[in-house]
Amino acid sequence: MINRGILIIFALLTFACEQDLAPISGCTDENATNFNPNAVTDNSNCIYFSTTPYTIEIPYGFPNMIIPQNNPMTVEGVNLGEKLFNDPILSADNSLACINCHDKSSSFSDPNQYSTGIDNIQGTRNASALVNIGWNSSFNWDGSAQSLEEQAFEPVTNPIEMHDKWQNVENKINTNLEYKDLFLKAFNIDYIDSNHIVMAIAQFERTLISSDSKFDRYIRGEEQLTPSELSGYAIFNSEKGDCFHCHGSQMFMDNRFHNNGLDIEPFTDLGLGYVSGNSNDNGKFRTPSLRNIEYTSPYMHDGRFISLEEVVNHYNSGGNYSSTVDPLMKKIGIGLQLTNEEKQDLVSFLKTLSDENFITK
Length: 361
Fold this sequence. Notes:
Structural class: mainly alpha
CATH class of the largest domain: Mainly Alpha
Distance between the termini: 47 Å
Strand order of the largest sheet: 1-2
Strand content: under 5%
Radius of gyration: 23 Å
CATH superfamily of the largest domain: Cytochrome c-like domain
CATH topology of the largest domain: Cytochrome Bc1 Complex, Chain D, domain 2
CATH architecture of the largest domain: Orthogonal Bundle
């Protein structure tokens, strides 16, 4: 006699299929081993694995994270995604993993100016930091991807990154018994395809949440800022520093694109303009979060600045005028005119956004 609890689990899994959630179709032959004590079998020898929901705790002051309906967070999916993120099996010669260009100690960014792929070819941009990206509305410096799942497709086939074909990657992973087991438990699939590979990676990336910096503890009333840090905070949030327009709120980014006066025309990198095809977007790049900015050197889309002091000096000098420069750059050619002490105070405040636990645990 079938246990009533098992029937309920089976009904829930069937409902999930009907609602177009994570695919549920893990069927095996009669001699298949039931790896999961919570698995359910039906008369066609299909094995259905019940997954464990992964709950994301929303940090103080953060908005809710929007999670795709067809890729709900599960413990099994997150663990699988972390393994894939660290595995060079995704590259053509099995030498390069996601973690190689998104180093944990650098807040999952690349400490080199340009990332280098498996054929020793350098790109032209600095790999973005993967911090709180579950709240991003677009991805890559130029906004060329609209979801984490879409973004995760790109590096595998990019000729200057992992330089492989998805069919080759699928073949490699489908012959790996450990991955066969993990994908069956996470997604109830027998054949591992690229869609589920990127779904797992995206689940893991949504867990990369930083919210325990000195500034966070200050906001929660758990720690005090120094006079220099408080002065920098005031400069940051005033017209004097003019940082808050693009880096306001607890997210310290605005999910928008700006030309921040880095270059004059013609631009060597069109940024958003290349993606949108609109010349008014030329030279615009996605606003990065300032969280853990101390760890993510070098800075800007092309890694041109090595230190935070150089970044502050860029804005203090007024930057460069071009036809698409952001209206928020009100002091082009004039600059912020901060004193040396004020510039140092601003850098001191930026360093309060460093979350050591994020890069060590």
